[in-house]
Amino acid sequence: ISFIGSTEVGRLIMAAAGQSNLKSVTLELGGKSPLIVFDDAD
């Protein structure tokens, strides 16, 4: 899953990923329209 959004949201996502067995996440920070992009998206 890729997350797109603000740096504040990025910090929260990284903290949650680190607390729940270090899940791999990709972040694109600085956007104003947050999205969740799944693997099967066209």
UniProtKB/TrEMBL annotation:
Q: Does the UniProt entry include the keyword Oxidoreductase?
A: yes
GO terms for MF: oxidoreductase activity
Show where the Aldehyde dehydrogenase domain sits. Answer: 1-42
Q: Which residues form a coiled coil?
A: none
Matching SUPFAM superfamilies = ALDH-like
Catalytic residues? E28
Alphabetized PROSITE patterns for the sequence: ALDEHYDE_DEHYDR_GLU
State the organism of origin: Nymphaea colorata (pocket water lily)
Keyword Oxidoreductase annotated: yes
User: Which controlled-vocabulary keywords does the entry list?
Assistant: Oxidoreductase
| Record's protein name | Aldehyde dehydrogenase domain-containing protein
| Stored PANTHER family | ALDEHYDE DEHYDROGENASE-RELATED
What Pfam families does the entry give? Aldedh
- Family assignment? Belongs to the aldehyde dehydrogenase family.
InterPro entries from the UniProt entry = Ald_DH/histidinol_DH, Ald_DH_CS_GLU, Ald_DH_N, Aldehyde_DH_dom
